[in-house]
Amino acid sequence: MVEAVQGAKVVVTGAGGGIGAALARRFAGQGAQVVVNDLDADRAKAVADEIGGIAVPGDASSVVPDARDALGGTVDVYCANAGVGRGGGGPGEPLDEQGWALSWDVNVMAHVRAAHALLPHWLERGSGRFVSTVSAAGLLTMIGTAPYSVTKHGAYAFAEWLSLTYRHRGVKVHAICPQGVRTDMLTASGSAGDLVLGPTAIEPDDVADALFRGIDEDRFLILPHPEVAAYYQARAADPERWLGGMNRIQRHWESTR
What we know:
Elements: E1 9-12, H1 18-29, E2 33-36, H2 41-51, E3 54-55, H3 64-70, E4 77-80, H4 97-125, E5 128-133, H5 136-139, H6 146-166, E6 171-176, H7 184-188, H8 190-196, H9 204-217, E7 221-222, H10 228-237, H11 239-256
Parallel strand pairs: 1-2, 1-4, 2-3, 4-5, 5-6, 6-7
Helix pairs in contact: 1-2, 1-9, 4-6, 10-11
């Protein structure tokens, strides 16, 4: 059991399946009271019924007030897990303005809106925990999906900013950055996901394991795929070499399409 979350009041967005459902189950198993949020009301209810939680369906960008009410007026842990993985979108391809706008709204601005709603109370009492499901794409990048890669960089940057700004005031922040995870989003990523992410894909429960180790060790950066640390270091140490390597992967992908 992780003492920091026992009895906590927790919100998990995008928890109707995949990583979000795994996080909701794990928090509930640790004795937390969990609000399960998802756009799909039936899926939210199914997970909530399974874990003895509370289903609060709807848009993750505006869920905080209703979730707080459902939890009796307090949120201790907020998991900004809802995300979208739009492919394409790069220069030279058809410009999908709606896809870009949706990616910014769900992958970045939903996190910003939640933090704005939560921080006043957290700062007043001197405690709170914000968990951001980012992606290794937020540390590195991902071929074939400009909106996802760019907005996940933004989500990671926002989590960093929260941590450096408020950690001395009792706010804990964790950024989860897995590579491939066997979810509907990985399936939807198509041939690029099959090439880059498929061979080392892990289960959603593995992501939950990594998060709870990180909470127990009070770590900001959660890497369910430990090898991502070396990739991140290589990217920073020699950007030209790293970009060249990623371009080789891009060219290989193009040759197989």
